[in-house]
């Protein structure tokens, strides 16, 4: 996900001789307003990864059917897909050598890709890309109502305390998932899918690549994180490397994904934590929502190693508020 959303996007900008719109630190703050510009060269996608199998009863809102299984017949009907001549249906399995090539072919398709445990195999831990072009059709109002009930801001109905209160609840739903209210379709679908998947008793993770925020969103049971490309000068690289008792050369080899002039490009990850206002109250009693308080705070900040690097860990670096 990091490679496709960030590194390949960066290469696409450079191949087209366009300056890359690096994210600013203020855009990573909770409740930040992101400039409303859609960058055509930034890759976008939506992927839902489920630990188990989504029961068929949920097809009403998570739209996955036989018609959007990644069979050769279904894929050929999507004429924009560059399907390889020697199509092998085993490429859909996560443990297949060609899985990532197959994933790259399908990631640009509208709506979401669904990866879940494969129900047709005996292995309990074999996962596959079971559906593409998966639509999320759960209304935002229902998602907001579900969240507000769990946090005890309402007892039953979204509008039980009036229209203005319901509007605040829906704004807070976006804040809960680290998104501005007026975000685009894939991020909204990611937010709604993440809230809906709480109904299924298993771990799920939603990934969304956004052309407006130039970031990779990851939503799971741990909360929300955003990964984006940031620039560091040679002096900053030297300081970070020194703090880790590492040579600048080792840092550049394992953490720098590109070099542009006097700057080094790295992957920066911001992970957010929930405040008391966005957690269920300890006493379980109903409470009033306060629109002015933050529901998210910056939890941890890291510079990530390049995708595929296992020897070197993420480096803690407090950057957003400096």
Characteristic key phrases:
single chain; 322 residues; alpha+beta; 11-stranded mixed β-sheet; 11 strands; globular
Would you list the SSEs in sequence order as H and E? HEEHHEEHHHEEEHHEEEE
Give the integer mean of the pLDDT values. Answer: 92
Helical content stands at 25-40%
Helix and strand content put the structural class at alpha+beta
Rg measurement, Å? 21 Å
Alpha-carbon distance between the termini? 28 Å
- The coarse overall form would be globular
Number of strands: 11
How many helices? The count is 8
The stretches of 5 or more residues where confidence is low (pLDDT under 50) are none
Largest sheet: 11 strands, mixed
Strand content: 15-25%
């Amino acid at each position: 996900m990091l490679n496709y959303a960030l590194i390949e996007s960066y290469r696409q900008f450079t191949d087209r001789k366009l300056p890359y719109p690096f994210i600013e630190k203020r855009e990573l703050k909770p409740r930040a307003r992101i400039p409303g510009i859609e960058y055509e060269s930034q890759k976008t996608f939506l992927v839902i990864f489920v630990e188990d199998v989504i029961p068929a009863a949920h097809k009403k809102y998570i739209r996955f059917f036989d018609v959007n299984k990644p069979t050769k017949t279904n894929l050929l009907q999507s004429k924009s897909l560059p399907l390889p001549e020697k199509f092998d249906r085993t490429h859909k399995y996560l443990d297949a050598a060609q899985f990532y090539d197959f994933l790259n072919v399908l990631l640009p398709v509208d709506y979401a890709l669904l990866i879940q445990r494969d129900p047709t195999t005996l292995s309990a831990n074999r996962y596959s890309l079971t559906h593409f072009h998966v639509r999320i059709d759960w209304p935002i109002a229902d998602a907001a109502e579900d969240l507000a009930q769990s946090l005890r801001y309402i007892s039953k109905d979204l509008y039980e305390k009036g229209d203005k209160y319901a509007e605040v609840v829906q704004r807070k739903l976006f804040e809960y998932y680290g998104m501005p209210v007026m975000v685009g379709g894939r991020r909204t679908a990611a937010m709604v899918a993440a809230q809906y998947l709480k109904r299924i008793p298993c771990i799920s993770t939603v990934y969304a690549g956004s052309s407006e925020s130039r970031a990779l969103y990851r939503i799971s049971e741990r909360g929300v994180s955003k990964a984006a490309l940031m620039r560091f000068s040679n002096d900053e690289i030297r300081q970070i490397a020194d703090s880790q008792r590492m040579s600048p050369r080792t840092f550049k080899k394992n953490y720098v994904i590109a070099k542009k002039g006097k700057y080094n490009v790295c992957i920066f990850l911001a992970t957010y934590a929930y405040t008391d206002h966005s957690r269920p109250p300890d006493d379980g009693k109903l409470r009033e929502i306060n629109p002015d308080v933050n529901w998210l705070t910056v939890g941890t900040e890291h510079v990530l190693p390049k995708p595929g690097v296992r020897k070197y860990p993420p480096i803690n670096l407090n950057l957003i508020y400096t």
